[in-house]
User: Fold Putative DNA-binding domain-containing protein from Actinomadura litoris.
Amino acid sequence: MGSATPSLDAAQQWLLHAVTTPSASAEQAGAMLAGTDGLDAARRLEIYRVGYRRRLLGTMRHMLPALRELLGPDLFDVFAAGYLDAHPPRAYTLARLGDRFAAYLEEQRPDRDLPAGEREPWADLMVDLVRYERLFAEVYDGPGTEEEPPAPWPTGLPDRVRGAPGVRLLRACAPVHEYHSAVRRGARPAPPAFVPSRIVVFRRNYRVVTASPPADAFTLLEALMGGAPPEQASVRAGLAPADARRHLRRWLAQRWITALPASPARESP
Assistant:
């Protein structure tokens, strides 16, 4: 840094790097931080770095209780520490700390280059459990429809719909939502069976709840929330138009989806 006094921005960037990057050198600590006769600047920096690291690990444990239960505390900390080394926090809030954890686990799995049918199911379970725990947190903390008046049973059907706030979909290799719920209740459940699961995560009366629609209904909902028109979505799901309309009416009433304004008619030239 030289003898010049660093700017506030430069000092903040240096401290962020020094605290969150394991390989960061503490050589500049004396120029950036005050020390005492009994505790030099480098040692004071290390105390802060260790304390902050413990806070990050504590946050990961709090955010992913089901994965910690599945792996055990020690192995969970190994994975979490590796993730924090690879992806130190950069957001202003620790609520985003685990956003890339599922992707990190995918990158680290030793069978990542094998065909899907030859990959280790336990790695799939870990990844899907993390994905579910992140979706649960998003729905819990995100917007909902609690303040809106009750939705009437729709008489007509819109041409276009979109997913309502606070609704998320997940395809998982196991019923990870049931395992997560058991852990949150304080149970010590056995690992879930490897049964493909289709999960809708949503909020009702400020509580996160889940549902598991049949395969064709779930495919229909996926297509609708992906922007497909209802007719196209029903074809993709292999549903008869009458069955698709029945699902559509129920989901509009449940506020899983909301109607979009009709597109303005195009004038003839």
About this structure: The CA atoms of residues 1 and 10 lie 9 Å apart. The chain is about 50% helix and 10% strand. Strands lie at 161-163, 168-172, 197-204, 207-211, 257-259. The two ends are 68 Å apart (CA to CA).
